[in-house]
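Schema walk-through. Below, the input block comes first and the output block second. Nothing else is stored per chain. Lengths vary across the set, and this one has 494 residues.
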Amino acid sequence: MSQFPVDCLDEIFEYLNDDRSTLHSCILVNRLWCGVSVRIFWRNSRNYNISNLKTLISCLPNKSKEILSNNGIIILTSITNFPAFNYASFCKVLSIKRVQRKTKELLKNQQIILPRILNNSTNIVLQEICKMFINQISSLKRLDLPQHNYAMPIPNFAIYPEAKDCLKNLSELYCSSSISTETFYQLLSQICHNISLINIKNDGYYRISDGLADLISVQKNLKHFTLLQHDTSHYQDYSFLVRKLPNTLIKLNLISKRNHRSMSLSFIAKFSNLQELKLLFDESDFIDFDKLSDISFPQLQILKFQHIRPNNEALARFLENNGKNLKELYVGVSRDSSYSNNLLNSSISKFCTNLRKFSAGFKNDELEMLKIILKSCQYLKSIEIYYGGKLLSEKEVLREVVSYENISEIILNYWWSNAQSVKLLPEELESFIVNRANYIPQKLLSFVIVTDDYKKSLDKNEENIKIIKKYIGLGVIKSFKIKGYDYDGESNQN
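--- output ---
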């Protein structure tokens, strides 16, 4: 295998992109393997640790090392000779926040340094490392910029003449909405015109930069836009941003965490090529969503609401016009438990028959409606059901869902559950698993539990976990996972 051509090794090692331990072992095999795998190992700075930072510092040019020395910054590294590779040049994903955080950890661990000068020393080191990145990266693909912080400002890339070459092919930008206007005006808006993905986090404590709208307006090929309005009472209007979005957009993701004011969603109507629409709100009136009900989005394949959704009438009409091409539908739960869901559930069963993934909460009296949807959506592979309050219990849902041959993944979401005990007994869980294995012996089932430490979810009973592990060992259950609540898009802000 060591004699494989370089392009073959490249393709093989790409599969190890997320397995840094194995990738590091490949570096040690021989010169050829090292040369190929080291580029992948250093490609994403979001994976860098303190050891990576030490290596980068040893790669700094003498002038940068002199600047560190003049500021009393002495960093010990295990590398005595100049490194074998120009590691900074391999970077394609540059996370300033990650490099900043690991640099601060390194200084804190290696030096007796007063807290009042730690930030300043971190800024000096970060400035020199970023200067090296900008000078040596031929074409950066993704840039992650941290939120505004007076104590630890973002390095000013605009002062580097090499920034134009480094950033001209930038395709993904993750940033805070409060980044200085100068950063957007002087650098990004002047250089980056072909960004395909922009992910913005707005924490609400700083004014939204005027330059951000200008950056959006000059994009020629923007495909994916995400805006996260963080958990805050300091609401800021971002409607002027979304009005600048070009009609090239195919993915739109708006996230609002416990924000008590809303904005009109009617602007979405202009994105006729949308393939994915995610409106993930904790509290919102979905203002003007009814104006989208009669709009056709012929390419739409993914529609997602998280926890809450628009009113059933508006959403039912929307699905009547756009349900046939949907592959994934997440409708959350109606906020009003007394409100009838028959119209919406009927629309799903009639117009969304090509679904592969489906997520919803069903009330106690809606078991028959769940059965109808399962029978109508014959291509369904994954189903997520919400529990708690006046919603169907795990026992009722599992009894019904496990008998459907096409379904290979069941997700139990306890977002709405309260302090009451889980109704499903361990012996009942085992009975469902055994019945599934007997009825559909060749189709393995995956279980996912979505919960937190405060919810009385199925996994809190040790007997349930023992049963699931038992049938994983017997080859009846494919996998089992417990995960917390999250919001799409937020995890990329590293």
